[in-house]
Every structure is written in structure tokens, then in C-alpha cells.
């Protein structure tokens, strides 16, 4: 099996105010697609995240199921790109794959001179399993998040 390029990555849950700030951009699929040409700002671009169908990677079309949560984008690789930085106080949680990763991330923060206890860590394994995530979300699943430690 091929090693993943980025074995550890996290999801930041942030206060939603950043969605409406000047400079925030949206992409209904991975923002790197088509050399970033699909990335745009504005309400219509935000709404494109939830379109009935989205042209995704490999020429595949992703169609929104009727059971999908209204808050969930049609393509799981949709992106919201926030201009500049997100203040630490606006980070609601750091979501990780498992407890081992939570410990690694906390240690990394300590090495950088940050206090990991200032952040809330949540474990949500299904969010890090793309082949399970897509059908799970299509069925209307809401990933569970478990606090760590």
C-alpha cells in the first residue's frame, strides 16, 4: 500500500463568523482543482457548496442525496478558504482521527511553545476515512465527536 503524503492532518472547527468576512472564498470541490479557477467569493459561491450536483475529481459527478444533512456540502472536498489567520480564540476544536493523534498534536503544540490545554481536542474517526465517509454522509449520518482526553 502506498504511504499517504500527509499522514497526520487535523480539522479545525472554527466560529462561523469567518464565512462572511471580506476575502473568504469558497470552492464546491477541492480548491486545487482546475488550478484554483473554481474558487470564488460571495453568496452564490457559498451556496454552490450545497448544489444538487457537483463535478468532482476524476470527472465524477457527486449528486446530493435527499438524506444528506443540509449543513453538509455535496462534495466532502469542498473548501472554505479564510483570508489571513484565524485567531486561536476562534478555534472551537481540533478534530483528530484517534487518541494517539491527539497526543501527537498536543506534543507538537508544546514543542512550538503553545499550551495544548487551551484547545479542545475531539476524536472523530469517520471524518478521516474517506471511503467510509462519503456513503455515511449520503445516508444522513452525523459524525460523532468524542472529547479527548
Characterise the protein shown here.
The protein is an alpha+beta fold. The chain folds into 2 domains: 9-15 and 88-139; 25-81, no CATH class. Helix content is 19%, strand content 19%. The chain has helices spanning 43-48, 99-111, 130-138, and strands at residues 11-14, 25-27, 53-55, 61-63, 79-81, 91-96, 121-123, 146-148. A 4-stranded mixed sheet has the order 1-6-7-8. Strands 2-5 form a two-stranded antiparallel ribbon.
Order of helices and strands: EEHEEEEHEHE
Global geometry = globular
End-to-end gap: 31 Å
Helix content class:
10-25%
Uncertain runs are none
Counted up, domains total: 2
Order of adjacent strands in the largest pleated sheet: 1-6-7-8
If you average the pLDDT, what whole number results? 94
Query: What does the radius of gyration come to?
Result: 16 Å
DSSP summary, beta strand count: 8
Number of helices: 3
Determine the structural class based on helices, strands and strand pairing: alpha+beta
Task: Please indicate the percent range of residues in DSSP E strands (runs of 2 or more).
Answer: 15-25%
**Major β-sheet annotation:** 4 strands, mixed
Topology, element by element:
Blueprint: E1 11-14, E2 25-27, H1 43-48, E3 53-55, E4 61-63, E5 79-81, E6 91-96, H2 99-111, E7 121-123, H3 130-138, E8 146-148
Parallel strand pairs: 6-7
Antiparallel strand pairs: 1-6, 2-5, 3-4, 7-8
Question: Which key features would you list for this structure?
Answer:
149 residues, alpha+beta, 2 domains, four-stranded mixed beta sheet, two-stranded antiparallel sheet, 3 helices, 8 strands, 19% helix
Amino acid at each position: 500500500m502506498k504511504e499517504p503524503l500527509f499522514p497526520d492532518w487535523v480539522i479545525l472547527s472554527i466560529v462561523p463568523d469567518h464565512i462572511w468576512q471580506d476575502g473568504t472564498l469558497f470552492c464546491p470541490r477541492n480548491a486545487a482543482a482546475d488550478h484554483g479557477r473554481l474558487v470564488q467569493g460571495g453568496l452564490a459561491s457559498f451556496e454552490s457548496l450545497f448544489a444538487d450536483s457537483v463535478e468532482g475529481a476524476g470527472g465524477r459527478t457527486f449528486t446530493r442525496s435527499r438524506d444528506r444533512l443540509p449543513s453538509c456540502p455535496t462534495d466532502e472536498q469542498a473548501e472554505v478558504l479564510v483570508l489571513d489567520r484565524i485567531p486561536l480564540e476562534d478555534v472551537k476544536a481540533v478534530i483528530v482521527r484517534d487518541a494517539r493523534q491527539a497526543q501527537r498534536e498536543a506534543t507538537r503544540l508544546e514543542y512550538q511553545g503553545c499550551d495544548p490545554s487551551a484547545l479542545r481536542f475531539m476524536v472523530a474517526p469517520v471524518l478521516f476515512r474517506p471511503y467510509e465517509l462519503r456513503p455515511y454522509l449520503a445516508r444522513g449520518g452525523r459524525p460523532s465527536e468524542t472529547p479527548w482526553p
